[in-house]
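Sequence only, no structure available. Ideas?
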Amino acid sequence: MLLSLLLSAVITAPLPPDLPFAGKSLALINKADPTPAEQSDFKTTPDYAATISYLKALAADLPTLQLSRFGKTGQGRDMWAVTIGDPANGKPTLLLQAGIHPGEIDGKDAGLMFLRDWVDGQHRGLLSKVNLVFVPVFNADGHERSGPYNRPNQRGPENMGWRTNARNLNLNRDYTKLDTPEMRAMLALINKVSPSLYIDVHVTDGEDWQYDSLVAINTTYSPNITQWLTQYYRPRLYKTLEENGHKPGNFLFLEDGKHPQKGAILWQAEPRYSNGYGPLRGLPTVLVENHSLKNYRRRVLSTYVLIERSLELLADNGAALQQAIVKDNSARPAVVPLAFGRATKPVSTDIPGVAYQHYQSPASGAEEVRWLAKPMTWKQVPIWPMDKPTVTATRPTAYLIPPQWQQVIARLKMQGIKMTRLAKASRVTVRQYHIDQYQFATAPYEGRFRVSTQGHWSQQQLTLPKGTVRISTDQALGNLAMELLEPAAPDSFLQWGFFNSVFSRTEYMEPYVIAPMAEKMLKDPAIKAAFEKALNNPAFAKDANARLRWFYERSPYFDKAYLQYPVLRVQ
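Reply:
I predicted one. Tokens follow.
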């Protein structure tokens, strides 16, 4: 009864008024040969079956458009990729990805329009110089969980997909841990086609401003690729978008969505995200975040312009980008940053925003903001670049992983990281991380209970079994290996919970056994002095169990593998 009353009371979310748009890109709409989105006047987007059916029809008209399966979703749907050209032919390849968040589906419908025009005879000269690999719907299961109430902050289409996959996992948090079949398939595709440029199309929520196309380029890794993207690609892309009536800008997060003047962060993504992962592995990556409050037609047209211009820039200067990729993949920095924070000082700049007013909401009981759909320049807003290294690690020669950690080894292989195995049991000198303190998250994140640790490294001589994996950092994906294996890295397998069994103790000593043993141990002057020092802590001194545990941990009966991180560094 309560549910039916709630459903009957549903009110459509009142979005701020839309900003007018009359750009040249409106001429891209083809009413004579419309795509499904054009046929609906951009009110709706086709479901997955209709999308693939449309692509198959295009392929039937022009067989050089190749449609192939590259994986299966959790619910068993085929994952499809469209290819024009041959990524093995030495020409630059653009990998265009849409629908990692299926409610943000602009890239799919823009891609269908672009392919329709190519089949109709346009772009032929362009696509003779470059290859295109297009994934129209990455998260197909989420795409089919479609409805009008999935994204209340977004203006169209009427039927929006769901953000996560069928297991409620966000694919754009899975680039490092590879928990989903969808992401494993995507990484296999990336390794197969070796793209020159990877574009991931999204739609962003948040405050209103004049931008309709926000672009994020991570500048914290791959300096030569960064130079090509920021100095060659981005200014030319922005110029073309502006010529077509669009408003591009760099992807920012406001510190306070109600008070733009407080400043914004120029976000640098962690490697679990596409635009953090790509630069770490030397893959030029562009995250596109169209603005949710701009209407669907405008967003799709902006994405079409972006696709076409990106292909043109690859055709014109892809050789320079390839040289940048080779340089970055050949670099072996002695110190690798693993996490970043905001810069100490901001850079102030004007932002093309939207006028707003504050009011007291009777619903929230607090001050809220109302956007007024009138252009307004937000003057000298402080912008904090998020490029200050906060966690670093020196580069080891290699890592060693005992063969029992099969899941971790399998994930490293899926990433494309090269490895060898010990042919026989071997005595090695290594550095091992001992966990002194740890804290598990109080709630799951992306299906996992993450763990943070503090500890210390020590040199050890260990005998490792046959089959132990050796991962050299002298390889193109050496930096990625460090991010996955260094315990301090936010995207390490340790912090994602792949090694949680090392936090479990399996053997214990009863008090009636350890107490008399401890009394004998106190006859050792060094043990006695250390114990007396520990007693200076009043809480420890009053805790009988803690006192006995102190002796147990220093006895030969204590589990030497307890709280020892099993991934070893070879200096």
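The first helix runs from residue 2 to 8.
Hope that gets you unstuck.
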